UniProtKB/TrEMBL annotation, chains A, B:
This is Queuine tRNA-ribosyltransferase. Binds 1 zinc ion per subunit. GO terms for cellular component: cytosol. Its cofactor is Zn(2+). Catalyzes the base-exchange of a guanine (G) residue with the queuine precursor 7-aminomethyl-7-deazaguanine (PreQ1) at position 34 (anticodon wobble position) in tRNAs with GU(N) anticodons (tRNA-Asp, -Asn, -His and -Tyr). Catalysis occurs through a double-displacement mechanism. The nucleophile active site attacks the C1' of nucleotide 34 to detach the guanine base from the RNA, forming a covalent enzyme-RNA intermediate. The proton acceptor active site deprotonates the incoming PreQ1, allowing a nucleophilic attack on the C1' of the ribose to form the product. Zn(2+) binds at C306, C308, C311, H337. Belongs to the queuine tRNA-ribosyltransferase family.
């Protein structure tokens, strides 16, 4: 069923469950594992297209919900799609809009047909269905588009999660039935919360569609990491070996390290740019608060080992000054640094996978990273994820 | 008395009163006429240092008042001055702080000694004197520093303007007495409002100090252009031929064209970046409002002849979308475009001066520019400035 042109994924190397891969898309080849910055409204907050390329981003996520409301998908289509609209020439991925409708609290009604929600812009009532989501995503023209799914909140009743994952599978079928463009790859989304048996049911309903990639959905919605990562491990090892695996909405440094160790290939999150706008810088020794009075007199860069323009050019004192003075260059520089930090983190993991030292690298990284926090303890969920990741998968992939 | 090292100005060509010059500063050579973007708090709003260079800026103005209050001149000095602090490696000019104190409305007392004002940040009472202004400007380390002057508002009584210009001359003497760094050039400021006889008096009191450059102060403070440009013409032709002339706080496109025709070499203004943040783009056909509903569907760039990144990469529709969505890339792109527009405008005038066609070029430019406005009429003050500018100066320079 994977008839998409210009779309191909190859796993080139493994280290335990972690993989190095190459993903071919119509707008270029990308190396996995990778982290995707979020360009909600067709722009990654704080960065120009040139800066997106400079920090090492390979593929941008854009939000269907926001763009269908404003400026409308037809205007984006008139620009030849997201690349022409945003000025970023590389690959894009669009979400389905479903998660935004539900998480932004504008949901009015959910039924077998789809969802009805109130626009956060003008209050109008709008319907989003699997068919409409695909239609919008085809107009937006991303390289990878996502199935329209339902993502239950945490906590939710087992029965609700179960009926929801079944509906998600029926919606997947409707998405695939309406999709009629060959230059976009549609990824299915596996649901099931933190329950292994429900993950099994979702996998059994989803994998027969043999989509060119799979997302692990329904996580990072409020559950503790002690529940989230076992669910990631359980699901990832049951996904096909030769398809990319995408853990949606995940992007704290420690989550990328654990997720990649468990065999995840793709991540996205607003975290690096959002925390940057709030004045925080990501480093191997934890998060640095540039709003602190201490930062105002530090004549050294955020991270002397970082190759981003913020660390190559500016002191912490200057960036702290920009934040206090409410100058937009401050949030820009921290957004750039934080994205570069996550990309470098993934690049270092790719290098470790290539030489088969991921477990040792990640354990050492965890010692430094968690060691910088108040209690200085590496959490069990993190060590367990790395231990699980170094083992050969025990589950049986459904295909 | 002009003992400054690494500082030199040469007029290379004339076309009527307009001049092409080269100004040598410790941080590099710049071509005049030129427009200086304003980096009030040590950053040009909306641009990174790399973007400042890319748009063709040659020298940045930074504000003594703002920087002495926050982060304090000592922190800037610890960075090796404004270049090390801001990451922009080229020349800087700092104002004296006097205009900011008076115009921002925080002035509490003005006396022969100096001014006492209330900090807009924490309400504390702070004294600024000629000596303190030079001390701060020396710590900031700009290539060009400005004498501490008093700039009367418009309108003001003749008697007040007269006693004020006399005090400004006494303050100039105190500034020069305390200045003890050879790698900064101190420019004096000629006052006198729109009154030729008071301009004469200020010139007579100021020029004997033979500073390496002169500013025309006290204009662009609310007077009509019909009064402002005759005062510019009168003052400029009485300034020494071999010293740069700086018209402070001026920067609308039509003002640059008229001012350069009248023999002004340097300008500064927050206008291009401020109007850009408000959603307006400068063009030869007037100011384009990207907040308008019409802009939302225009698939062409702001100006197809512009070589800035905004015009090379993005449609008006995309930039209009960014503004509506309150994405910071919108104000950034318009700030970049507007600065590039003013720099290109000056570059085109430099080319016209080089081949002796400035008058014709400026008349044609005015036809297009004012022709795009509601009444479509080229104002008399503009034509008169160009007519005056094409004539040989009639006044006698004091030196």
């Amino acid at each position: 069923m994977s008839s998409e042109l210009s779309f191909d994924f190859e796993v080139q190397q493994r280290d335990g469950r972690a993989r190095l891969g190459t993903l071919q898309t119509p707008h270029g080849e990308v190396q996995t594992p990778l982290f995707m910055p979020v360009g909600t409204q067709g722009t990654v907050k704080g960065l120009s297209p040139a800066e997106i390329e400079e920090v090492g981003s390979q593929i941008i996520l854009a939000n269907t919900y926001h763009l269908m409301l404003r400026p409308g998908e037809q205007l984006v289509a008139q620009h030849g799609g997201l690349q022409g609209f945003s000025g970023y020439p590389g690959p894009f991925l669009t979400d389905s809009g479903g998660f935004q409708v539900m998480s932004l609290g504008h949901l009015r009604k959910i039924s077998e047909e789809g969802v009805i929600f109130k626009s956060h812009l003008d209050g109008s009532m709008i319907e989003l269905t699997p068919e409409r989501s695909i239609q919008v995503q085809q107009a937006l023209g991303a390289d990878i588009i996502m199935a329209f799914d339902e993502c239950p909140p945490y906590p939710a009743e087992r029965d609700y999660i179960r009926s929801s994952l079944q509906r998600t599978a029926r919606w997947l079928e409707r998405c695939l039935a309406v999709k009629d463009k060959d230059d976009q790859a549609l990824f299915a989304i596996v649901q099931g919360g933190v329950h292994p048996d429900l993950r099994d049911e979702s996998l059994a309903l989803t994998l027969p569609f043999d989509t060119p990639g799979y997302a692990i959905g329904g996580l990072a919605v409020g559950e503790p990491k002690e529940e989230m990562f076992p669910a990631v491990a359980y699901t990832a090892e049951r996904l096909p070996e030769h398809k990319p695996r995408y853990l949606m909405g995940v992007g704290h440094p420690e989550d990328l390290v654990a997720g990649i160790a468990l065999g995840v290939d793709m991540f996205d999150c607003v975290y690096p740019t959002r925390t940057g706008r709030f004045g925080y810088a990501l480093t191997d020794r934890g998060r640095l608060n540039l709003n602190s009075s201490g930062a105002r007199t530090r004549l050294e860069p955020i991270d002397p080992d970082c190759d981003c323009v913020a660390c190559r050019t500016f002191t912490q004192a200057y960036i702290a000054h920009l934040l206090r003075a409410e100058e937009m260059l401050g949030p820009r520089l921290l957004s750039i640094h934080n994205l570069r930090y996550l990309h470098r983190l993934v690049e270092r993991m790719r290098e470790a996978i290539a030489v088969g030292t991921l477990y040792d690298w990640a354990m050492a990284w965890g010692q430094t990273y968690f060691g910088s926090k108040a209690d200085g303890v590496v959490p069990e969920w993190f060590t367990e994820a790395l231990e699980t990741g170094r083992q050969t998968p025990t589950g049986t992939p459904h295909h």
